[in-house]
Task: structure prediction
Amino acid sequence: MTSQQDIPLYEEVVNHWDQWAEFISRSETSDLRKTRRQAFEKFRESGFPSIRNEDWKYTNITRWLRESYAMQGLPEEPSGNTLSVAGMSVSRGMWKKGKIPDLDCYTLFLHNGVWMRELGDEDLPPGIEVLKVSQARKDPALSAWFERADEKDRYFTALNTALFSDGLFIRVKAGTVPDKPLHIIHDFTSGRNLMVQPRHVWVVGENAELSVIETVVSDSGDAGIWINSLTEINLNRDARLDHVLIQTASAGARVVNHTTVRQKKQSLYNSYTFTLPGADLVRNDLQARLEEDHTETHLYGLYLTAGSQLVDNHTLVDHQKPSCFSNELYKGVLLEQSTGVFNGKVYVHRDAQKTNAFQQNNNLVIGRKATIDSKPELEIFADDVKCSHGSTVGQFSEDALFYLRARGIGEATAKALLITAFAFDVTEKLKIGAVAAYINQLISHHIPVDHA
Amino acid sequence: MLIIKNLHAEVEDKQILKGIDLTVRAGEVHAIMGPNGSGKSSLASVLAGRESFHVTEGEVLFHGKDLLDMDPEVRAREGLFLAFQYPIEIPGVSNVNFLKTALGEIRAYRNLPPMDAKDFLKMSREKQKLVEFDAQLVNRSLNEGFSGGEKKRNEIFQLAMLEPSLAILDETDSGLDIDALRIVAQGVNKLRSADNAFIIITHYQRLLEYIIPDFVHVLYNGRIVKSGTKELALELEEKGYDWLREESREQAATI
Result:
């Protein structure tokens, strides 16, 4: 383990825990307080991960941990529930930054993890309940949703559980089919080093449907902003969720984003994760827990990385029960001196007979100094299953490039066309035209003329 | 239009063109024939600017400009077109978008205003009809899942759309059945004019029954060893290519 003493943030958390816990868990249930304490103990034990930890082997975050960060939502840095006039105008700017043109949706705007109702749509469709987590966690009837902790929680997830203060609680009533998708804009803005730890819980009721598009934008000037976000998604029997995540945070953002999806019988989860150039670090942990039979899961991802960015996607598809289907396709385009990591684990338990699990990761390494570490992992303990995985790393096809150029298309445009084409396998899966158009526009925008 | 002088080229340190001289004027159709491995397709690749081919000697003037000094895309914008022997499949790039992009860049190079969507569509429809290209294929990904014949017809459709002054057809007839061959040839015949020129590279005389060339050249061992009119193609069909080998042996003997 790295000597955690060298990490100011670790020191800060350990030294202030008692005081912070007292502040943060005021009027929470004793069970939640207990959960927080246990999580804190786990964090104190594990500290922050280093490359000596298997799950972080290729993702070295020490350079961003050398700085100190204020902790949002705590006595010194309480989360503002209202914005000043100046803050309001900054947020309006960020709102515009995150907006998707021509998308017909309900918009929810969050500033540093806190829902700013006045900046989004006031009216939400019937059957959908949205609450601030700062409120929901104190409600004894809802508190249990925040007490779920995984045995394996440590590092960032443990830290989030110990100290989260706000986020979005969304519950869709059984049988509800909203007329439009929800667009959640997460704005992270700070003029100085700050750590924000949003916690979101979404519950989709039996036979209900939800389509969510999340956009992440940030502006921290020369300062650093750590975003340690944790989302718990619960899909009840026959529930369906389309979940698009568009990560467009700017330089200075260090994003650790953990999502756990629990799927009940015959539920369907479609995930589309797009990571674009900007943030210094993006680490996504996406875990689909197939807790009952006959579920369906599709995980699509596209990472386009540039500069000295580090983007790491860790996914887990946990087949616990029989007759579930999962399919995963992640594609990466690595520009300049950026680094990509893909780790896709499929775990098929002994009980999970008749499992169909497919996984594919393809990478286009364009920058001469760009790297990718791709690691598919299959662990299968059932004998009647169909599983496959594949991983490729390649460069531009010289033949394709020449073909385009021989038709008068300049080299830069030809490369842009080939990148868009490479991404097409993922972008074509998007069901909402406005979102697909937006993503394609983002991709084109980020393809520089000089690719080396 | 095109003047090739003493062109030498190599690929992977192997000399494949050993002194080609050829002049093509507007309105002419030249056929280049020859046995496998004689350098026919290499000549096409060198003219189109494929990077793996290195010119070691000689020069090529295209409309009076130094062709060899240009990037492949500049050659295309100057009016050169290569119909590929093996057209590439590019999933995710639609045929339409590809042509729109190509045409846009070519027009921009020539200081022409961009074509508006309506005019492009109209042009595309006309050319599809002209070369009998299936409208459904136009909207598909570039050559993806196309049959051999469909790919070749797509080359001719692109040729029709981009309106080059010089088109090089690299064994466009290979792998085509008679019907496809006829359609391709008719397309070329409709596109022939007093202002453009064609170089048709072929192994067989078959295509030349449909596209009547003004000149026929025989390429052997990196050189043009014989030039003539369309009758030469018939002679080759009758005699095959073996006599070339004998003749070149005799030549070697006299030297």
About this structure: The CA atoms of residues 335 and 366 of chain A lie 5 Å apart. The two ends of chain A are 36 Å apart (CA to CA). The first strand of chain A starts at residue 70 and ends at 71. The interface with chain B takes residues 397-400, 402-411, 413-414, 417-418, 420-425 of chain A (CB under 8 Å).
